[in-house]
């Protein structure tokens, strides 16, 4: 747990008070967990939170929770303004490092596939993978080597080299990435798949840009 967040105690609950809090560069949040007597309302520095979202949004974090000391927590929910993308509220769950959890882990695609060099298009189907592991073993990302993918090839969850103690929570035959044929050789099904992939990648791009603006 190399990432740490400093939380401040929060008593503001009205819309006007929360709006004022955000104007001060703070983001309201709540920390839940079996290890806490009751949920804790907190305020986090918006810049610190933005850095977290850019680097380790799915990592186990060390948070200094007011009155409860340092706690291992996991970011579980983000509420954003539908127009500006501004983060309005976040939820964290306190976790036991020795208990199993299910969480999303970012997939880090590495290398250049021969199929792309031949004019094919890399289609990313999964950007994140849901895994099950002990909380202390949750990795910040999982590398995915695409350097051997030829045109028409694909990688499935079964092909991923997961760290020790990490188990995928998806079916092993779930496609992670594939290389589609060059445009002139594509079938109607591949063109439809491209449209779906392009739409999903655009959604991820917008989400990333929203984080960059925080």
UniProtKB/TrEMBL annotation:
<dbReference type="InterPro" id="IPR001021">
    <property type="entry name" value="Ribosomal_bL25_long"/>
</dbReference>
<feature type="domain" description="Large ribosomal subunit protein bL25 L25">
    <location>
        <begin position="5"/>
        <end position="92"/>
    </location>
</feature>
<feature type="domain" description="Large ribosomal subunit protein bL25 beta">
    <location>
        <begin position="100"/>
        <end position="183"/>
    </location>
</feature>
<keyword id="KW-0689">Ribosomal protein</keyword>
<dbReference type="InterPro" id="IPR020056">
    <property type="entry name" value="Rbsml_bL25/Gln-tRNA_synth_N"/>
</dbReference>
<dbReference type="InterPro" id="IPR020057">
    <property type="entry name" value="Ribosomal_bL25_b-dom"/>
</dbReference>
<dbReference type="GO" id="GO:0022625">
    <property type="term" value="C:cytosolic large ribosomal subunit"/>
</dbReference>
<feature type="region of interest" description="Disordered">
    <location>
        <begin position="186"/>
        <end position="214"/>
    </location>
</feature>
<keyword id="KW-0699">rRNA-binding</keyword>
<comment type="function">
    <text>This is one of the proteins that binds to the 5S RNA in the ribosome where it forms part of the central protuberance.</text>
</comment>
<dbReference type="GO" id="GO:0006412">
    <property type="term" value="P:translation"/>
</dbReference>
<feature type="compositionally biased region" description="Acidic residues">
    <location>
        <begin position="188"/>
        <end position="200"/>
    </location>
</feature>
<dbReference type="InterPro" id="IPR037121">
    <property type="entry name" value="Ribosomal_bL25_C"/>
</dbReference>
<dbReference type="InterPro" id="IPR020930">
    <property type="entry name" value="Ribosomal_uL5_bac-type"/>
</dbReference>
<keyword id="KW-0687">Ribonucleoprotein</keyword>
<dbReference type="InterPro" id="IPR029751">
    <property type="entry name" value="Ribosomal_L25_dom"/>
</dbReference>
<comment type="similarity">
    <text>Belongs to the bacterial ribosomal protein bL25 family. CTC subfamily.</text>
</comment>
<feature type="compositionally biased region" description="Basic and acidic residues">
    <location>
        <begin position="201"/>
        <end position="214"/>
    </location>
</feature>
<dbReference type="GO" id="GO:0008097">
    <property type="term" value="F:5S rRNA binding"/>
</dbReference>
<keyword id="KW-0694">RNA-binding</keyword>
<dbReference type="GO" id="GO:0003735">
    <property type="term" value="F:structural constituent of ribosome"/>
</dbReference>
<protein>
    <recommendedName>
        <fullName>Large ribosomal subunit protein bL25</fullName>
    </recommendedName>
</protein>
<dbReference type="Pfam" id="PF01386">
    <property type="entry name" value="Ribosomal_L25p"/>
</dbReference>
<comment type="subunit">
    <text>Part of the 50S ribosomal subunit; part of the 5S rRNA/L5/L18/L25 subcomplex. Contacts the 5S rRNA. Binds to the 5S rRNA independently of L5 and L18.</text>
</comment>
<dbReference type="Pfam" id="PF14693">
    <property type="entry name" value="Ribosomal_TL5_C"/>
</dbReference>
<dbReference type="InterPro" id="IPR011035">
    <property type="entry name" value="Ribosomal_bL25/Gln-tRNA_synth"/>
</dbReference>
């Amino acid at each position: 747990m190399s990432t740490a967040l400093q939380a401040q105690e929060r008593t503001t609950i009205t819309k006007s008070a929360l709006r004022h809090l955000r104007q001060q560069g703070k983001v309201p949040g709540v920390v839940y967990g079996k290890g806490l007597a009751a949920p804790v309302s907190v305020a986090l520095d918006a810049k610190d939170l933005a850095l977290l979202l850019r680097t380790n949004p799915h990592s186990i974090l060390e948070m200094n929770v007011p009155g409860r000391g340092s706690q291992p927590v996991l970011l579980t929910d983000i509420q954003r303004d539908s127009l500006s993308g501004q983060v309005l509220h976040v939820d964290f769950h306190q976790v036991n490092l020795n208990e199993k959890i299910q969480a999303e882990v970012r997939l880090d695609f590495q290398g250049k596939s021969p199929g792309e060099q031949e004019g094919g298009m890399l289609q990313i189907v999964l950007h994140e993978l849901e895994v099950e592991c002990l909380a202390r073993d949750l990795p910040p990302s999982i590398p995915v080597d695409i350097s051997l993918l030829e045109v028409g090839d694909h990688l499935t969850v079964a092909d991923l080299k997961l760290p020790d103690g990490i188990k995928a929570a998806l079916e092993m035959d779930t496609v992670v990435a594939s290389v589609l044929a060059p445009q002139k050789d594509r079938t109607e099904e591949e063109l439809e798949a491209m449209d779906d992939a392009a739409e999903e990648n655009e959604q991820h791009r917008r989400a990333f840009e929203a984080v960059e603006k925080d």
